[in-house]
Amino acid sequence: MEFKPGLLVLLSISAVVWSVPIDRSAANQEPKDEPPPPEESVDTGLYYDRYLREVIEVLETDPHFREKLQTANAEDIKNGRLSKELDLVGHHVRTRLDELKRQEVSRLRMLLKAKLDSLQMDHASLLKQFEHLDPHNQNTFEAKDLELLISTATKDLENYDAERHEEFKRYEMLKEHERREYLRGLDQEKREKEEKKMQELKEKHRQHPKVNAPGSVAQLREVWEETDGLDPQEFNPKTFFKLHDTNEDGVLDEQELEALFTKELEKVYDPKNEEDDMMEMEEERLRMREHIMKNVDANGDRLVSLDEFLKSTETKNFNSPKEWETLDAQPAYTEDELQRFEAELRDKEEELKRRAETLRQEQELLKERGKALEAQRKEYQQVITLTSKQSRGTKPLNVPLQPFSLPRSWSSSWSRLLGLSRIYLSWYPV
Region labeled Disordered — which residues (predicted)? Predict the structure, then answer.
């Protein structure tokens, strides 16, 4: 699947292949006609990423919509004019879009069911919290769905980098919290030894070669020479741009830009070194990309065009940039932020303890109820056993089917006694 820049100016998901270093065996080697590398989808990080990509993929199968997408600008997309073109796409495209929406609604319902069944809440009303589709129409994909999908993805992608920075800050604070807790649990001698070791690792990490500012002539020349294998004296910005526009869509997207920083990051981070944290390396990569976007991306579309790139090479920052400060030169958080974070951890720990105690009490209650039920079961079993024994020890009555009738006249007392005896014997045989 290949997304066109028109729509992805807004969505910032135009890259469909990871940018990779270009191998050049000779400086002036003629380019060879080689098949393009297989495309690899780049996850936007959105929880509806698959739905977003499938919708765009289906829309691009329609010739009319594809043509409109080619000529659309960011303003057309943002104000919803492009969404109105949905009414003109083919029937098979609309049918496939309807199917995709029903699948997405079903997926969201399953997520809600797993989380909220116990609350006995209305799933239909809960679907309204998802802003990337129209919850009032859960069966067909309309122009409003496309408009909502684009606007929501735009907003979410704009906040994505800020969320990544916040996650990294919390990661660093947790790491420092665990370090302090670990040292607090040691005696003085061991604590001093560990503190010395940690300080040595920190100093070792700081001893790295100078890092060139992202997007500067020094940084780009280094990529040109060491990655592309070309003569640094023949550096040409336009050629450089085309070499690293790996999907040949006329722009450098975020993934293609981040691939340019690999050589600089390798100066500071090595996964084999104990002192180097790969989470910090990814944060450094993000900061470098943001630096270029801030200084080169003139229209703020999260893409660098050839014109923007060439204009950036004419600025002072390109030839004489400020020295780039890596993460180790500036703390990711303040002491006050760390204190608030630790207080938050303590509150969560107390809450977990309360929940654990509640669960323990409920478990004890269940055990007591279980014991009571077991005692009641044994009591019922004893009653049944006793009743069964008594029923087996009693002889059944052998009452004849025809009732016994007394003679109308007995001649003597003896005959009466004899008759009574017979009656008794007929009722209770020996």
Answer: 186-210
In the block, residue with structure tokens 């500012």: 213
Whether 217 and 313 have beta carbons less than 8 Å apart is answered as: yes
Other C-beta atoms lying within 10 Å of the C-beta of residue 260: 23
Under the banding of pLDDT at 50, 70 and 90, the label for residue 248 is confident
- Two tokens at 365? 């209650």
Q: Which of 312, 320, 322 is nearest to 240 (CA)?
A: 312
Query: CA 313 from chain center: how many Å?
Result: 39
Q: Do the Cβ atoms of 234 and 339 come closer than 8 Å?
A: no
Find, among 217, 161, 213, the residue nearest to 326 by Cα: 213
Residues 182-188: contacts with CB within 8 Å, 24+ apart?
A: none
Mean residue pLDDT of the chain comes to: 79
Higher pLDDT, 100 or 70: 100
- Nearest in space to 138 (alpha carbons), one of 107, 102, 95: 102
Beta bridge partners of 304: 252
